[in-house]
Amino acid sequence: MVAAYVWISGIMCLSVSTTSIPGDLAEKLSAIADAGFGGVELHEPDLTAFDGPPSQVRKIVSDLGLKICLLQPFHNLEGQPEAGRERAFDRLKRKLDLMSELGTELLLIGSAFEVDVAATEEQVIADLGEAAQIAKEMGMRLAYMGLPWSDLIHSDEQALGVVDAVDSPHLGLALNSFFSLADGSKPARLRDIPGERLFHVQLSDAPRLEMDIRRLKRHFGLLPGLGSLNLAGFVRVLSRAGYKGPWSVARVNEAAPQPGGRTLARDSYRSLVNLLDEVSRTEPGTDFGIPNLPERVYASGFEFVEFTADETSGAQLADMLSAMCFRMERKHVSKSVELWRQGAINIVVNTEKEGFAHSAFLGHGPSVCDMGLRVKDADQTVQRATALGAPNFSQPVGTGELDIPAIRGVGGNVVHFIDEKSDLHRVWDIEFEPVAKTKATQPAGLRRIDHLAQTMRHDEMQSWLLYYISTFEMAKSPIVNVADPSGVVQSQAIESPEGEVRLNLNGAVGRRTLAASFLEDGFGAGVQHIAFQSDDIFETSAQLLKSGFPSLSIPENYYADLQATFGLDDDLVAQLRRGNILYDRAAGAEYFQIYSRPIFNGFFFEIVERRMGYAGYGARNAPIRLAAQSKTQPVKEVQTQ
Known about the structure:
Layout: E1 2-8, E2 11-17, H1 25-35, E3 39-43, H2 44-48, H3 54-63, E4 67-72, H4 82-102, E5 106-110, H5 121-137, E6 141-145, H6 156-166, E7 171-176, H7 177-181, E8 198-203, H8 213-220, H9 231-240, E9 247-250, H10 261-280, E10 301-308, H11 311-323, E11 327-332, E12 337-342, E13 345-350, H12 356-364, E14 367-374, H13 378-387, E15 406-408, E16 414-418, H14 427-431, E17 432-434, E18 446-457, H15 461-471, E19 475-476, E20 480-484, E21 487-495, E22 502-508, H16 514-522, E23 526-534, H17 537-547, H18 556-566, H19 570-578, E24 582-586, E25 589-595, E26 604-611, H20 622-630
Parallel strand pairs: 2-3, 3-4, 5-6, 6-7, 7-8, 8-9, 10-13, 14-16, 18-22, 23-26
Antiparallel strand pairs: 1-2, 1-9, 10-14, 11-12, 11-17, 12-13, 15-16, 18-23, 19-21, 20-21, 21-22, 24-25, 25-26
């Protein structure tokens, strides 16, 4: 898709192209308007396939409160043989007539892929000069882009040279950040481009990979923020140069599975506004016309995780929590809701028969339905998230209960926000009352939540990632492919600057993987496991053994391979084997993991210890864990359309 930030009749607005949003043209336009955009870039194939005159398209767009800001045929006309030039200029005139019917005045054209062998740069300048004159006579403008695979004009510098040589206010330069930065170039090389010469800018992200740029664009064209290119620097440099035209998000990724049109439109809007907001905070006086957003939120930890359950699954969960040495410390003053605690970990078990948690149970079965994050300002957190397209969440508040600010996450689960500037952090004292202690419970040394793992369909990963990194101060790690016995799961870790909040986003690729089975049984995306942090994995393991914790059995061959790989001594390997503990080491840092056996729909718990600053998640152990889990429950194939 291509999203743009454009100047239309003196009014700035955010715009998105129809080029890769699924559905017919009317459906695409509706999704674009609902996402919050004010303009649309019309891709010519969508217009060609529309069963109606251009005037009808113009009316639909207007009725939705949109503007058509750009027509995108990528019409090539330079360097053609004489007969071809005549046809090219005839087509250009028809395109400009069409633009008049649509109510737009900017046409995007790209340098030719194949030109006449005798063509020269002088011929290109002559062709574009004639095209600019035609555009002038018809009151239109042309935005010219040099494409890397063009035979003749294939760089920003060459394209700018052509535009300068033509020297017409009706011909300007178009840039694409992918083409400008993917070869490792720095944004600073563009700082001398005159702002008045620049008509159109596309923003497209990508990982840092060395390969043919056309293949890279086709397979790795990403929305801003999802790759590694310095798009903020790119926008900053061009803004300082005086650029006043469209800002586009050009996303062309043929290999990635596509979510629905409304999701793509929402993701485009979120990624574009987040990028422009980032730049505006470092460039005083810059006005992109975007919503006035609070800063990205620093999440300082997990305040709670809430499960929805019925009496049967609630009892199963209570048994598991007891086996991990949690203690049920408080009950809600008026609802069937329990608070289980250990260290700084708060686990809420909700068995109410009405309200949001119960509706989540009816839709997903026993599962995590809510989590609370500690933030500096809960209200500002909701303001930023909702301005970027996250749905607000509210439900009736009972007498004596707190109205805790919340939003709905990508998968429909709720995220509440707890701050200390109000009474929100006293929720456990205000809404809950202590229960009588019937027996002493020896803790197992679990200190805090280390991370949550959220499982989703592969085509939802982009939406989840954008939701987190645009709302919160979080950095992402490269995607890792994890081998499941029945397929592949893609995993991407994100975390807050100090590691207080860590999340693993797991996209189910194979239809028979455990992750896919979890999605089918749970009727959609959700939290599949919670990892607790221990300061001493062996003391924790010993206490768990006493309490009857149902640990996942790890095969003997794993420990033989572990000893050979890392040269561990016999005593350490014996300790690991005795506690079903997995081990990893990287650059002198160590990581220990214990898994529970799965409960209800494939959900499980994990206990970890990090030594010497270990920053990963034991990726080398994931196939072992998955193989062991596959023996505890049948894996069903998920049907896909």
